[in-house]
Automatic annotation (TrEMBL):
Family (UniProt): Belongs to the ABC transporter superfamily.
Keywords assigned: ATP-binding, Nucleotide-binding, Transport
Molecular functions per Gene Ontology: ABC-type amino acid transporter activity; ATP binding; ATP hydrolysis activity
Record keyword Glycoprotein present: no
Domain of life: Bacteria
Protein name per the record: Amino acid ABC transporter ATP-binding protein
One Pfam family per UniProt: ABC_tran
Organism: Zhenhengia yiwuensis
PROSITE patterns recorded: ABC_TRANSPORTER_1 (PS00211), ABC_TRANSPORTER_2 (PS50893)
Lineage start: Bacteria, Bacillati, Bacillota, Clostridia, Lachnospirales
InterPro entries, alphabetized: AAA+_ATPase, ABC_ATPase_HisP-typ, ABC_transporter-like_ATP-bd, ABC_transporter-like_CS, MetN_ABC_transporter-like, P-loop_NTPase
Segments forming domain ABC transporter: 2-232
Length: 232
């Protein structure tokens, strides 16, 4: 689903990604752990074209976002990025829009989906997320866990092939970590491929098919997990 080869990224004289090689299989949950400043978030942002890399390759499915240091055309970049969902660490919900408006904004404006269909799709997503009663609420009326689920719903509305999470439990109380873990397992059952950045090793072990460690801009080691991810 995702293949990254020999990826380099610097900020001035500071090399942040130093020849990163990484792959994610269809339907796999890959978790990247490691210390702050190790390059995890930069890697995630590079996959989403929020940062530009100097060299290397990033391929989603059979489509290259970046190949041997050269980016795809603007039109192709736009098409590829539509297949990558991103859930930000601090949710980044639009405060002036209701929950359902937050979820329908991108499908209607970016994908050109009719408002009625986008609304019905959003209601279905809210039902899946256990938020059916919150469609007309505003972000300030939601708990942290509810905001996290809305942020996930907003990314799901674009029907991505790959879902990326940046520290999905960092802004939540520890008691809500299991809720997020169970939701991610539910997405896996639906066949979603996922890349998760986290400092929370216990959370990582609950959801991961594979965990890789990253430090000083490089992948340092990898662990496989065989336990069943659809149960509690």
């Amino acid at each position: 689903m995702l293949h990254i080869e020999n990826l380099y990224k610097s900020f001035g004289s500071n090399a942040v990604l130093k020849g990163v090689n990484l792959h994610i299989y269809p339907g796999e949950i890959l978790v990247v752990v490691g210390p702050s400043g190790g390059g995890k978030t930069t890697l995630l942002r590079s996959i989403n074209y929020l940062e530009k890399c100097e060299s290397g390759s990033i391929c989603l499915g059979n489509n290259y976002l970046l190949k041997d240091g050269r980016y795809a055309s603007k039109q192709d970049l736009k098409a590829i990025r539509r297949n990558i969902g991103l859930v930000f660490q601090n949710f980044n919900l639009f405060p002036h829009l209701s929950v359902i408006e937050n979820i329908t904004e991108a499908p209607t404006r970016v994908l050109g989906i009719a408002k009625e269909k986008a609304t019905q799709d959003a209601l279905n997503i809210l039902g899946f997320l256990g938020l059916s009663g919150k469609a007309n609420s505003y972000p300030y009326e939601l708990s942290g866990g509810q905001k996290q689920r809305v942020a996930i719903g907003r990314a799901l509305a674009l029907n991505p092939k790959l879902m990326c999470f940046d520290e999905p439990t960092s802004a939540l109380d520890p008691a809500l970590t299991d809720d997020v873990a169970n939701l991610i397992k539910s997405l896996k059952v639906k066949g979603m491929s996922m890349l998760i950045i986290t400092h929370d090793m216990e959370f990582a072990k609950k959801v991961a098919d594979r965990i890789v460690s990253m430090d000083q801009g490089q992948i340092t080691n990898e662990h496989m997990y065989d336990n069943e991810k659809t149960g509690s």
